[in-house]
Design a protein that fits this description.
The protein has 204 residues and is α+β, with helices and mostly antiparallel strands. The protein has 4 helices and 8 strands.
Length: 204
Amino acid sequence: MSDESAAPVTSKLPDAPFHTSGTDHVTVWGSNEEDTLAFYRDLLGMPLVLRQPNLDDPSQTHLFFDTGDGRILTVFVSDERASARGQRVNTGAVHHLCFTVEPDEYEDIMAALEEAGKGYNVFDRGIFHSIYTQDNNGLVIELSADKYEIPDDRKGEVLATAQRLREEDGADFAQDRHMEGALEELGLPVNKHDLPDADAGVGV
């Protein structure tokens, strides 16, 4: 393809119904927790800041790692899966990509998806609020908005504190009270965004 016929490459925002505001997290299919921790935490040095069930399939565990700049890598693991080498269909593959959107654009985003003929689901994940749709190849795309105002460089710290509060509370997954408690404990303001009510996931 010649440069003349190729799509222009530019840093200018395209004329689109909405614009993402950053990358929130990447989630991959992992093998088991032991091997996953050995690589991401013990070798790459990523703190494990949250552990809870996969809210769409509670038979799996959902691990959250702080990649170092407040951006999060998450991994679905199960003790029934062995680590594999080489090309893989499930283990080690990307489950979905997540992009950050502004909470006050949520309604506009859903309207834009509907207008484009894209189906979507909305879930309240406890620590954030998400719209799920698919790209042209069927890859799941998540458009995520934080439920609370959290500085990027404090996100891992907030999640780790919410994890501790969740465990102390005996709750299955992090919820509003854990996030609010974490923010208060860390001396951060508790500012909750106005987002639509939604289920936590299909597995709960």
